[in-house]
Write a structure and sequence with these properties.
Elements lengths: L2 H14 L3 E2 L8 E6 L2 E11 L3 E11 L3 E10 L7 E9 L3 E9 L5 H15 L25 E5 L1 H25 L6 H21 L3 H8 L1 H12 L6 H6 L2
Antiparallel strand pairs: 1-3, 2-3, 3-4, 4-5, 5-6, 6-7, 7-8
Bound molecules: biliverdine IX alpha.
């Protein structure tokens, strides 16, 4: 269902950047499950290039029961640009949730003005996909922008409106990257390192997918996938707590 989105992202990335494939820890790159009705394959890709320190995307194909496309793009630490976050989910065709955002690293006015306001014009053209839904797992004021697309929708809208919106958001994101001036001051760069790391910790600890991964692939695999691949700069909760 979301394959065309994955293919489009891949094509754009390969046309615009000198991507270098990055290793994914053994056993996490691809996994299949045949636990009765929980049959699914999960597959992931990871790249880097001078402007983007980590580009990862994952596809879960569980047939009609589940289709998921998830991706995060982390710019190099010398750019304070938001992360690009994609989470498109479909469970049994009835429950379709799509989230697409430039995930802000900071919340000050200047940052909003520079990186978030430019999204407004696009967001306003896709009202149907920006439903101001309440978040249960995350805090909407942390790492989400006010112009995110977040909707409960249907297959028809995914193929038409969402695909258009997706192309527009990606275009704007590439444009921001092209215009970005790299930071050179070490302290400024350290601030980005910390902000991206905090994002990983926050996201890993709250990820609503952990139950989904566990149900398909087991708890142990799920923890490894979260902390060794998806959010590898995060420490597992038990560890980070015992170190406090
Ligand atoms: C919600 N994301 C969800 C849910 C699942 C996933 C199962 C809960 C849906 C529900 O029942 O309400 C799935 N999350 C995943 C998967 C991966 C993952 C499969 O990380 C990894 C492969 N989530 C992101 C990114 C964004 C994001 C990058 O990983 C940013 C665009 C957003 N997902 C996001 C939001 C929700 C969500 C905002 C709703 C959560 C809430 O209500 O608080």
């Amino acid at each position: 269902m979301y394959r065309p989105f994955l293919e489009y992202l891949e094509k754009e990335l390969f046309e615009r950047f000198e991507l270098q494939s990055q290793p994914i820890p053994p056993g996490l790159e691809r996994q299949t499950s045949d636990r009765g009705k929980h049959q699914a394959t999960i597959e992931s890709w990871c790249y880097k290039c001078p402007q983007l320190r980590k580009v990862r995307y994952t596809y879960i194909d569980g047939g009609a029961a589940s289709q998921v496309f998830n991706s995060v793009i982390y710019p190099d630490h010398c750019y304070d640009i938001p992360l690009l976050g994609i989470d498109f989910l479909s469970f049994g065709k009835k429950k379709i949730i799509v989230v697409l955002d430039f995930q802000p690293l900071f919340r000050d006015e200047e940052y909003q003005e520079k990186y978030i306001e430019p999204m407004r014009e696009i967001r306003d053209r896709y009202d149907k996909l920006a439903q101001n839904l309440e978040m249960k797992f995350y805090d909407a004021n942390q790492y989400f922008s006010k112009y995110l697309l977040f909707a409960k929708t249907d297959a028809e809208t995914v193929q038409t409106g969402l695909f258009e919106a997706y192309k527009d958001y990606l275009d704007l994101y590439w444009q921001m990257l092209e215009q970005a001036v790299p930071l050179t001051n070490q302290e400024d760069i350290e601030r980005i390192v910390k902000a991206q790391k905090d994002y990983d910790q926050y996201s890993a600890d709250r990820d609503p997918a952990s139950g989904l991964f566990s149900s398909y692939f087991g708890h142990e695999w799920s923890e490894r996938f979260l902390y060794e691949f998806l959010f590898e700069d995060a420490k597992p909760l038990a560890v980070s707590q015992s170190k406090k």
